[in-house]
Amino acid sequence: METDMRAKGTYTVKKWEEKTYEQISPEMKMTKASVEYGFSGELEGKATVEYLMFYSYVDPTDQHKATASYVGLIRFDGTVAGRAGSFVLEDNGTFQSGAANSTLRIANDSGTGALQGITGTGIYRADREGCRFELEYNLP
């Protein structure tokens, strides 16, 4: 029997390496970012991410004034409600006014270990006050 569960917590950026692969105009570009996060709270562990990003506006003097949209694949490795394993999240988001907002979906059949069969969706927000996430999930 599956149970609807909710996990909340925070995360920190451990590594962010971003490179431009297409400069469309002085204010517009496409980039790829390789990122590592550390999670704490009801999800405990680490995650690696590959993002593809489109900046519709870039301010070279202040990156927080940029406007962008992005997609990414996040591989979380750690524990959820004390169950150890990993899974992949599909991330679709925007960055505007200094805040990143994303919707997440657990990729089908991506769970390993005690998280095998995990499904669900979530959100996260990263801004000057920190990085917070919320995940609604089912585990068989």
Overall 3D form: elongated
Q: What's the count of strands?
A: 9
Tally the structural domains. 1
Structural class: mainly beta
List SSEs in N-to-C order. Answer: EEEEEEEEE
In DSSP terms (H or I, runs of 4 or more residues), the helix count works out at 0
**CATH superfamily placement:** SO1590-like
CATH topological fold name: AOC barrel-like
CATH C-level? Mainly Beta
Q: Strand sequence of the main sheet, in spatial order?
A: 1-2-3-4-5-6-8-9
How would you sum up the major sheet? Answer: 8 strands, antiparallel, barrel
From the N-terminal CA to the C-terminal CA, the straight-line distance is 6 Å
What's the alpha carbon Rg, rounded to whole Å?
16 Å
Helix content: under 10%
Summarize the structure in short.
This protein has strands at residues 3-25, 28-41, 43-57, 67-80, 83-96, 99-106, 112-113, 119-127, 130-139.
Describe it.
With 140 residues, the chain is mainly beta. It has a single domain (3-139), classed as AOC barrel-like (Beta Barrel), CATH 2.40.350. The chain is built from no helices and nine strands. The protein has strands at 3-25, 28-41, 43-57, 67-80, 83-96, 99-106, 112-113, 119-127, 130-139. It has an eight-stranded antiparallel beta barrel. The chain is elongated. The N and C termini lie close together (6 Å). The relative contact order is 0.22.
Question: Which key features would you list for this structure?
Answer:
78% strand; 8-stranded antiparallel barrel; 140 residues; mainly beta; 9 strands; AOC barrel-like
